[in-house]
Structures are given as C-alpha cells and as structure tokens.
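Sample entry was shown:

___
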Amino acid sequence: MRFLDLVALILENLGRRKARVALTAIGVVIGTAAIVVLVSLAIGLQMSANENLMMGDLTQIMVEPNYGEGGPGPIMVEAAGTGGGGSAPPNQTLITSQTLEDLAAIPGVTQVIPRDFMQGEGILKFGHLESWAGITGIGLRDLSELDLDPQGGTLQLERGTAIIGSDFAMNFYDPQMRPGQEPPSPPDLLDQTVKLTLQKYDNEGNATRKSLPLRIVGVIAKSNTEADWSMYMPLEDVTAFNEWFFGRRINRNRDGYMNTVVRVTDLDQVQDVVEQIEALGYRAYTPLAFAQGINSFYVVLQIVFGGIGAISLLVAAIGIANTMAMAILERTREIGLMKAVGATNRDVLSVFLGEASGIGFIGGLGGVLVGWSAAQLINVVALAYMARQSAQTGAPPPSVAAFTPLWLPAFTLIFATLIGLISGLYPALRAATMIPVNALKYE
C-alpha cells in the first residue's frame, strides 16, 4: 500500500467516528496542555531567577585571603590587623603583590584586578542630603574592562574622581526629614561634586575628621550585579584613606589586599582556574558555580512538572487503547474483507497504528494550542500581579512568568503522537493477526 493511500484511508476511518475520536483526543489535549503549561512555568521561573541573580560576568573569579588555620599558600605571615590596628589571626594566606603575579601566571587567566574597601567611617554629602560612604578601590583605570556599560559620563577612573552604580543615588536621605514627610528623590550626581567626610576616633573617644571633594564622573548602567549599588574609586585613593584611618602606611606584603578579581579567557576554563587558585591556599568564588546550581535545580523542576503533565497523557493513552480495541471489534468483518482482497498483515497493522497515532497527533496539536494560550494568559496575569508587588517593595519586576520555547511544543506534539502509537500497538497487532475466514464469519 502506498503511503498516500495509507494516509487517505486513515483520515477516512477517523472521519467516520468523529465523536469518538474527539472524546478520546480530549484526554490527550488535557495531558499535552498540562505538559506545555507546567514546563513553561518552570522555564519562566528559571529565566526570572537568572535575571534577578547578581551574577555578572561568569568568567570572573573573586579571590579572597584564606583566614582559615594552616593550609598551603605562597605566603604564610603573621599580619597586622587592618581594622584599627588590632592583631589578625596568626596564620593567613594573604593576597600580596607576589600573589597577583602568581595568579596572572595561571594558564587561562587574562587579567588580575586587586581591590580594597574603605575601612573606616565616611559620610557623603550632596546639598542637604547624606549617605553612608561604602567605597571600593579598584586597581583598574577603565571599568568597561569588567563588561560594564556607562549610563552616563565615562567609566575612566582618575585620582579624586568616583564612578557610581545606577542605584547608588538611592542611598541618599535627608537627615532633617520629619515624620510623615515624603522622602526626597534620588539626586542626579553625574558631573556633580560631593563632599566626603572621613571620621576616626582615638583611644579616648575623640573624633578626628577629614573632608575632601569627590567628582562623580560616570554612572554605570544597571547590570544586576554589585556594581549597581557601588561607588568605585582608584585603588591608590582608597589606600590613602585607609592609611589615614590606621595612622600608618599600608604594606601590601604585610596587610595584603581585601580581594582580587581574576578574569578567565572562557567559561570552560573557569573551574580549572578555581581549583588552581584554591591549591595556592586562597578562597575562590565564581558566579558560574552558583548559576549552574540554580539552573540544575530548575532543570529538575522542569522534569518534575513535565512528569506531572505526562501522567495525564498516560491516562489518555488508556483511552486511546480502549477506543482502538472497540474499533477492532466493530470492524472485524472489514478487516477480514481487507485481507481477502490482498491486504497483508503489515498493511492492516499500518492502518490501525496510523489511526492511533492520528488520535495522538490531533490531541497533541490541540493540547499545544491550548497550553500555549494558557501560558500566555498566565504570563500576562502573573506579570501584572508581580508588577504591583514590585511597585510596593521597590524591587525590579520580572520580565517573564511563563516562557514557551520552540522546542517544547514540537517535543510535546511528537510525544503525544508517540503515546498514541504505543497505545494502539496491541489492538493493531490483534487486527493484523486475525484469520480472514474467522473475521468474515464474525457477527
């Protein structure tokens, strides 16, 4: 039997029992739609989580000193404290100038960027507004090398200048604000000069202050990383601030750096570089490991959700098998007649398998359309609800709640068709193995 003749015969047979086929296909529609909706929700949750995670460039590795007891490392020293002159733990693996050279020598490392933080009390003032000064000193002149983009101004750092993140201005408040008064809007700091006041205390509690101007030369575009809320200054400026706080010069071989950013050529080398850094005795953190853990969780969630939907589809498979079994009983004489006029067992098998697959395909197609439409409706309703919640909390709203990738409808349609094929296998084998004489005599 030619393929086109087979398809025409299958369509004709399905059309003869429209009501029965439709009722059987409804079960497939429900199961297929459940798979599409649930997996779309899981994928949407994964995308929303990845958007809101502060991961940044996945090829970056954050390296910190190892303050644990013992452990291998290039330098094991007894360091002076950096928090006002106290003693630090005796055995530390510090990030020193030699460390920077060792890290840069690791294969695959393209850049090593030391960082330090202002380790004392500082207040930023702009007009009548104030903000706590959390300043990061970075050994880099161009922040665009960290894959950051400018929202305004420049990302080039110079002595006496600062670059802030897109949300940094939200830290400013009015110290004279009265109860019930509306909070002030975040100031526009680009190309403005703010006053930085440093303050330290002696052993008797007497305060010493030092004020200096800072010019904000650039604002970093929103990146969903720590940069959004940070203020960056040249490393030598922050080092000078800390020396004023501590009352002594900072020796990097004795005090070390707070941390350093290591950039790697590509993602495939990140884990290997992390292991080499840890072998040197340092602590290494990479957003890639966290992202992989999060994505693994959501992949498992997709499988679980898809499995729940597949249960409905398996229940529908029983309906397909029952429909085909009843069809064989009703068409026993027809089967005998087909064989009497020359149809082979393979032809009969192909007809009934094709009908079962057709029911699965029709139900799968309907389920894909229903599931996709339901996912879009959920997306609209959920995003509207979460947008209202975000407006109340101030958090950024998610951009997606349910997402249906192109592979999901295609996979679900093929899966539904395959379920129909498997469900009709036993009834089709019964029909193909019937003896023509007995089939023609069947009442």
Observations:
- The longest helix spans residues 345-393.
- DSSP finds twelve helices and 14 strands in the chain.
- The longest strand covers residues 207-220.
- Confidence is low (pLDDT under 50) at residues 70-89.
